[in-house]
């Protein structure tokens, strides 16, 4: 293998695990973030076949931001961890030159891989440890049961920031409820349904069929948070145990964030891997990678039926790899909700029934939606898949916020060509930023038409409706259904409401839409 460029970046170890103590009603400090990160890191080091040497050689540690530390306050309820990468470094007895704690976003694990591949290729990093965990199940369980836990650590120093820290939503969006994933992705879904010309019943079946494919993989994965086999009909049909969350999504179509899972990856160069004694059968190459961001605010996107950023990102990654989607043998398409997968299927030109399948883990609703870190599990699982299926290619996609921030990677045990280099994402991001945006009005009055919509539910049934609509002049607005108007909410679900007419009025800082 002497023809391989010694600076070629490779992934050499991956580790992941699922802690089930919370599922058994046990809430302890053993499932605190730093102990979880250490365990995953040591598993990843062991996977390289040269654990001690790899750990000693670490010169960069990057930690994916905890979901409980992703709010605007950025404070864990069990105590502040001031510098997670340094806390982990101390447990591993290393002093890396770089300590990174990322911005929020499910895109960040793959973004980190892309970043460090470039740094390794340029000779700026030798051994990088990328890790993340989610212990939301223990955190929420302890709060509910009144169990006092203490995760606070002050390791000193301030970690380097990495990623995009902009707020995901505007005040206008937040005022109308369009600011959290369970509320926003259903808005995408109904728009997609309309573009496909489907009625609610037909589309519900399609979503059930799609996610049953994810569920089947999760049911066979021992690391899945919910390794329970469910039929397409069970996933798609509202029931007492599978209520609507945001119409048309049932509970079984939503990412499950209350999990306790951790994962980590080691990256280095071919030359350093040889020096450290890492066997070549452990090496996995990053053939193509890219990142792109859709128009930042949901309310400003021109078209809710497609993701221009995923399409552009895919074009760049496949061009870099010299491959097409037909060359891919395994995939893990980000699956927080069906619309996220459907965006990717459209962008890559894939049919929903593609026999290759779309996940190696089982997906966020079934394997577990480990907060910002789910894709680290995708990557670790893809490493194992590539090693088992040597000579094939695997695609991982990652998604942050509301189908906003995207990253992808193409993996294989086949060596990459000499001179590994990626295109700077900033060079093509301007193509997305230049897209036309509709005129947005915050004060809306008059005749209006529904562009897309959802009806949010709680345990007692429909709670409020969200409408994105257009006024007669084509300008866009956000609105809610009248407070407490059960009939208005029910009619949005009972009657085809895409393109439906009505009236919108503004009062007390909010728009209210009444369907005709």
Q: What does this protein structure show overall?
A:
- The chain has 516 residues and is α+β, with helices and mostly antiparallel strands.
- The chain has two domains: 9-168 and 256-433, Peroxisomal Thiolase, Chain A, domain 1; 446-515, Beta Barrel (OB fold (Dihydrolipoamide Acetyltransferase, E2P)), CATH 2.40.50.
- It has 16 helices and 17 strands.
- It has helices at residues 33-47, 51-56, 84-92, 108-121, 136-145, 171-175, 181-195, 200-219, 232-236, 270-276, 308-321, 338-348, 364-368, 374-388, 425-433, 486-494; strands at residues 9-18, 60-63, 98-102, 127-135, 160-162, 244-246, 249-250, 260-269, 284-293, 328-332, 393-400, 405-412, 446-458, 461-471, 476-480, 501-507, 510-515.
- The strands form three sheets. It has a ten-stranded mixed sheet with strand order 5-3-2-4-8-1-9-12-11-10, sandwiched between helices. Strands 15-14-13-16-17 form a five-stranded antiparallel sheet. Strands 6-7 form a two-stranded antiparallel sheet.
- A hairpin with a 2-residue loop joins strand 13 and strand 14 (461-471).
- The longest helix has 20 residues, at 200-219.
- The radius of gyration is 23 Å and the shape is globular.
- The termini are far apart.
- The mean pLDDT is 97.
